[in-house]
Design goal:
The protein is α/β, with parallel strands linked by helices and about 220 residues long. The protein has two domains: about 80 residues, no CATH class; about 140 residues, Protein-Tyrosine Phosphatase, Chain A, CATH 3.90.190.10. About 50% of the residues lie in helices and about 10% in strands. Helix 5 links the parallel strand 3 and strand 4. Helix 6 crosses helix 7 and helix 7 packs parallel to helix 9. The longest helix is centred in the first third of the chain and has 20 residues. The model has no long low-confidence stretch (mean pLDDT about 95).
């Protein structure tokens, strides 16, 4: 809920500021509206705010409607990518690789499953055209219901799996925890997180994501009975 409140308040303040400045600054109200819509999406758990398609693309109307915020997100992602010393991806186990959103030439080999968790980015053409591509859109800093997480991991085909969000920390960490628990590689959420952070130290789950991970483990045990 903190994300929802913060984003909505920022959007309202930006609209008020743009109105006080007048002129071309009125264009900032567009970004303000984008922030309010994103805040409402966080408040309601609407992970498909941008209507990302199953093939990893965003419809033209969505790109136009959310253009200011998408441009800010795109620029921020590239600035982080260029300034970060963190590797683009890390191999957790021979069957699981996690990382940030990759450029077209950065894919580390072939994968039976290529899981894209971003809802705000289109996937690079070579990646979304791979046979193992699957999109599980999640809002940045948020988490789906545990049932959705279980459904996602149950769809995975045998073989190597690559999981990514924007930077490969929160959303990626959540799904990777679910994969490790589902595979039996880890028995607890804490054990799974320790394994992930041993290889990719910046992996973090916020309180919402940690709670969903624990709910997933309970659901997983129940489904196994």
């Amino acid at each position: 809920m903190a994300y929802a409140i913060t984003l909505s308040v920022l959007g309202i303040l930006l609209i008020i500021w743009a109105g006080s400045l007048g002129g071309w600054f009125w264009l900032l109200t567009w970004l303000g509206v984008n922030l309010i819509l994103l805040g409402l999406a966080h408040a309601t758990g609407h992970h498909r705010l941008y209507s990302k398609r199953a093939d990893g693309t965003l419809p033209l109307w969505s790109r136009l409607l959310h253009l200011p915020l998408l441009l800010v997100t795109w620029a921020t992602w590239h600035l982080y990518r260029l300034s970060s010393r963190e590797a683009a991806w890390h191999e957790i186990t021979p069957e699981l690789v996690i990382g940030r959103r990759l450029l077209a030439h950065e894919l580390p080999g072939e994968f039976a499953n290529y899981i894209d968790l971003t809802t705000e980015f289109e996937e690079s053409l070579p990646h979304r055209n791979s046979s193992g591509y699957q999109t599980v859109p999640m809002l940045d800093g948020s988490a789906p219901r545990a049932e959705a997480l279980l459904a996602a991991v149950q769809k995975l085909k045998p073989g190597r799996t690559f999981v990514h969000c924007a930077q490969g920390h929160g959303r990626t960490g959540l799904l990777a925890v679910a994969v490790l628990l589902h595979q039996g590689t880890a028995k607890t959420v804490a054990e799974a997180l320790a394994l992930l952070r041993e290889k990719r130290p910046l992996v973090r789950l916020n309180s919402r994501q940690r709670a969903v991970a624990e709910q997933f483990l309970i659901l997983l045990k129940s489904s196994a009975k």
